[in-house]
Structures are given as C-alpha cells and as structure tokens.
C-alpha cells in the first residue's frame, strides 16, 4: 500500500467463517459505507484472494476453522507492515485482545460488531496508514475548514478531527450541499441525487437522513452540524464565522 490515501475506495478483505454474518451483514454493510470488499470463509480462501488482488486492509475473525485468526494475523504482518488489520472476536477475554495487538493488529473489535463502528475503525486505520498528505480528491474543505469531507468524501470530519463514516445516500446529499457553498439546495434536487425515480421516493426519507446526520454529528462532536433548513427552499450547509 502506498503512503498516501488512494484515489479510489479502500479495498478490504474480510475473513469470517459465519456465512450469514459475512454475506448478510458485514459485506453489504461495508459496501454501503463506500468500501470495495471481498469476503472469505477460510484462511486459505483469503490467501488465494490476496494472490489475485491487493487489499489495503483486512478484517480477521479470530475463530476460523482452518487456521487460528491470530496465526493469520502473524503471517500477514510478516508479509506486509503496511497492511491495515482489524481483528474481530466473540471472546471478550482480554488475552485475545492483548495478543492481537502484540502481533500487529491495528484495531480490535468485539462481536457482534456494529457495521458503522467497523467502518469508522477502518477509515481511522486507513487515515493513519496514509499519513498526513491528502489524496487529490480528498480533504475538500468546508467554509473555515472546521468541518470537511475526507477519504474521497466517504467521511465527514468533525472540527476535532473525528471521521464519521457516511453511507452512500448520506455521501450523495452532503457532496451536493458542500458543493453549493452555503447556498440552499432544494429537496427535489437532493432527492434526484438519491434516486432515478423521484416520484417513487418518499420525501420523509430525506428528512430522516438529515435528522440522522445531525444526530450523528452531535453525538460524536458535541456541536451542531451546520446543515440548516432553509424554509421553503430546502437545506444548506454553512459554517458561521
């Protein structure tokens, strides 16, 4: 992996032997948060995938049938010091956690994993691995730069530097609002960015998305998101100076 963030979605390999969890929750969830993801149910399958394509980061379940996840971690870390590695386990014992970190894991999460927390963790690992230099398409500054879009606009970064991962719909509306530099954007235009059939789209879904974005930012940063309602016009994204 390069020392800078790629001008493409992060490529993630996921080793999880629970097919329902892997295919039904983790893979679609991470894709929804903007990652390119390949799943594997066995360590051998992950190794074969890595011969055919490169990954920026991998998510490893400790308990896999053909090889212990900690052994997979040790092997991957010996092969590459730049590969981001996030471990998952259903065992809450601190011994697994400590051993994973000793062997070079970048982060460790307990199962059942919240996909949004996993996405935020992967973005955080990616940003650390990429270093301070932004890619040409990232770090679009908003107003004074206190709030900004990062990682090819898949994260909203708070004034304190906390990256909030965005779902694909959230990314669509925020990119449009940010591009207008504080000018109002109509609800119709925002809806059109989300769907090809605006007449089949429930406008209340847009209101719920805006509400969720505001709550997500408030809970994470403790300050209001400058996503304002323009009465009779729609919404605008403004940072007051």
Topology:
Layout: E1 11-15, H1 19-32, E2 36-40, H2 43-52, E3 57-61, H3 69-79, E4 84-89, H4 94-102, E5 107-110, H5 115-130, E6 140-142, E7 147-150, E8 155-157, E9 163-165, H6 168-179, H7 187-194, H8 203-221, E10 227-230, E11 234-237
Parallel strand pairs: 1-2, 1-3, 3-4, 4-5
Antiparallel strand pairs: 6-7, 7-8, 8-9, 10-11
Could you list some keywords that capture this structure?
241 residues, alpha/beta, Rossmann fold, Arc Repressor Mutant, subunit A, 5-stranded parallel β-sheet, 4-stranded antiparallel β-sheet, 8 helices, 11 strands
What does this structure look like?
This protein is α/β, with parallel strands linked by helices. It has two domains: 11-130, Rossmann fold, CATH 3.40.50; 140-237, Orthogonal Bundle (Arc Repressor Mutant, subunit A), CATH 1.10.10. The chain is 41% helix and 19% strand. It is built from eight helices and eleven strands. The strands form three sheets. A five-stranded parallel beta sheet has the order 2-1-3-4-5, with helices on both faces. Strands 6-7-8-9 form a four-stranded antiparallel beta sheet. A two-stranded antiparallel ribbon has the order 10-11. It is elongated and about 60 Å long. Mean pLDDT is 84; it is low at 133-144.
Label the CATH architecture of the largest domain. 3-Layer(aba) Sandwich
Give me the strand/helix succession: EHEHEHEHEHEEEEHHHEE
Gyration radius (Cα, Å) is: 19 Å
Q: How many structural domains?
A: 2
Quote the distance from N terminus to C terminus.
Answer: 39 Å
Can you summarize the main beta sheet?
5 strands, parallel
What's the shape? elongated
CATH class of the largest domain: Alpha Beta
* CATH fold category name of the largest domain: Rossmann fold
> Can you count the helices?
8
Q: What do the pLDDT scores average to?
A: 84
Structural class by helix and strand composition: alpha/beta
